[in-house]
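INTERNAL TRANSFER SHEET
From: sequence group
To: structure group
Subject: Endoplasmin

Please process the attached sequence and return the structure record in the designated field. Keep the field labels unchanged so the import script can parse them.
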Amino acid sequence: RDGAEQFTFQAEVNRLMDILINSLYSNKDIFLRELISNAADALDKIRFLSLTDKSILGEGDAANLEIKLWLDSESKTLYIRDRGIGMTKDDLIKNLGTIAKSGTSAFLESMQKGGDMNLIGQFGVGFYSVYLVADYVEVISKHNDDKQYIWASTADGSFTISEDTENEDLGRGTLIKIQLKEEAQEYATEAKLKELVQHYSEFINFPIYLQSEKEVEVPVEEETEEAKETEEAKETEDAEEADEDKDEEGAEDDEEEAKEEVEKPKATRKEKRKDWELLNDNKAIWLRKPSEVTEEEYQKFYKAVSKDYTDALSYSHFRAEGDVEFRTILYIPSFSPFDFYDKYYEKAQNGLKLYVRRVFISDDMKELIPRYLSFVKGIVDSDTLPLNVSREMLQQEAALKTIKKKLVRKVLDMIRKMSETEVKCKAMEEKGETEDKPSEKDCGQYGKFWEQFGRAVKLGIIEDSTNRNRLAKLLRFTTSKSGDKLTTLDEYIGRMKEGQKSIYYLAGTSKEEVANSPFLEQLLRKDYEVIFFTDVLDEYVMGHLMDYDDKKFSNASKEDLKLADKDEVEKKKDKEVKEEFKDLTKWWKKVVDDTKLQAVKVSNRLSTTPCVVVTGKYGNSANMERIMRAQAF
Ligand code: ADP
Ligand code: MG
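Return from structure group:
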C-alpha cells in the first residue's frame, strides 16, 4: 500500500500464519466463529465502558451494538463489521502481529502433535484463522482515541498499517475485509454464511445481521417517477443524519411499504432486494427456565461462551435467591484448559463471565471462583451487584463473596453427583445387577472428569479448608487391591480389616515402584490394603487431610507404622529379637555417620528384605524429599 508503514510479524505468529494460509484443513468454517467472537468481545468492552460514561457510545448508528456481515460476490470479498471498541493504531500493531500470546507456541506444538485446528480460539490466536479462507485481509478499525487505520496483510511475513482515507467513516468499531481464497469460494454465498452463524453463533449476545437477497413484494403504483424521487431524497437525508449505509435504508423502506400495503391493497410485483436479516436470537438463555432449555441449546450456548468446540461434560443452571440474587449456568468442560496446570500459580483461567443485569462486566473476576475451580466455564448474571461502578470497586463488593460460596457449592455438587453415579455403577457391576443402572455415558462421566481434573480436586484439598472433606470424597486412588480400577476412600474404609485403625499409604514415582517396595511386605502379608500415591501432589494432599472419617492416614515408609493386630505372643517375641540383635544395631550406629542416621531398630515390618532405611515419624518421607529437591520448595 502506498505510504503505508511496514511491520514484520513476530516469529511464532509468522509460523502460525504460514501454516494457516497453506492449510488444507477441511473445517475452515471456524474462522467465522472466531471473528464473530472477537466482534462480540469488542462490543462487550464498549458496552462496559458506556456504563460509567454514556457518551462513549456516540450517537446514531455508532450506538447500535451489533454485528453485520455482507458479501461482494463479484470480488469474492466478505465483510464483517462490528460497532465494538475498535483498535487504535497501536492496538492493531500489538494485537494483530507483533506480540505473540503465550498460547501461540502452545498451539503450534499441539498442532504438531496432531491437535485439532478447531482449538485455535482457546489458545488466544483465533483471529489468524481468517487465513484459512483468505489470501488477503484488511482490518479497518476506529477507536474513540485515535483516527481510523487500515491493517493489511497477505500473510507473507509482514503487514502494513496506514491511515484510512478511502473507506467509509466507521464512527467506531472494526470492519474486516476478507478476500476469499480460490479454495474457499464456498463462503461467498449468503446461504453458507447464514448456516454458519446459526450453527456457531446462535447465542452471541448481540444481534448479528446478514445482508441477503430476498424476494419482496413491491406495489406497482409506487413505481412512479415521483415516488422514486421522494424515496431517494429521504435516503440522502437519513444518510447524512445518522451515517447509515444504504442497504439498511432499504430495510426500513420495505417496512414502510409493507405498512402501506395493509392500509390499501394494491397490485404488487416481486422484486429481488438486499435486506438485513437477523440471524440469531440474542435473548439471554440463562433467563429462561431450565425446563424450557434443551440439552442441545445448553451445549450450543456452552460453545458460544467457552471457545471450546467439544460438548461440556456437565452443566448446572440455577437461580439463587435471597440477599444476593443471581442466575448462572455453570459448565464443566470435557478437557482441562491447555495451560491449567502448567501455569496454575501464574495465571488464573477466565472461563466465568460476570454480567450485571444482562450487561457483561468481566471475565477476569478472581473473586468469583477459587483458583482450583477456575476451569469452570459459563456465566453469572447478578441483579444485586451495582451496575455503575468500576471493576476495581466491584471486587470489593461483599455480595461477590456470597456468590462465590454458592458457586463453589454448586460446582462441587455437580462433581459429587458424577462421582456417586460412578461408585453406584461400579457396585452394580460387581454384583452383576442391571436394573435401573445409569446409562453407560453417565457411568463413565466421572472417570473422564477425574482424568482431566483430578489434580484440581487435590489442589482444592490443599487450598480450600472449608470444602476439604467434600473434596476428599472425590479422590480416586489405585491400591494394592484395586487392580486396574480406581477406588475411593469410602470404598477403602468399607474394606478395612477388623481392628484396622489407619488408612495405609505408600508414595513413589510409579505404581510398579510402590507395589514392589519392601515397605509393603509386612502390610501385604497381613492382608492390609495400601493406597499407592504416585502423583507428586498426593503427599501434600495427605499433609493437609490428616484424617478421613476419623481414620488417620499412615505412611507405610515412616517409623511409627503400627499394625493393629499384634498379640501378646508377638510382642514378647519382638522383645527377644531386639535383645538378640542389640550388638548389631549398636555397630550399625557406629559405622554410619550419625548425623545422617537417627536410630537403628529391629523391626518386623519386613518379611523377605533384610533391612530398609526409613524416615522418622516427624521427618519428610523419602518421596517428599525427592519432590522438594526437584521443586526447590
Ligand atoms: P483473543 O480473542 O483470544 O484475544 P484473537 O486472536 O481472536 O485472540 O484476537 C486478538 C486480539 O485482537 C483481541 O484480543 C483483541 O484485542 C483484538 N481484536 C480482534 N478482533 C477485534 C475486533 N473486532 N475489535 C476489537 N479488537 C479486536
Ligand atoms: Mg478471539
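Handover comment: Residues 34, 38-39, 41-42, 82, 84-87, 95-96, 124-127, 174 surround adenosine-5'-diphosphate (ligand 1) (CB under 6 Å). The first strand starts at residue 5 and ends at 8.
Transfer complete.
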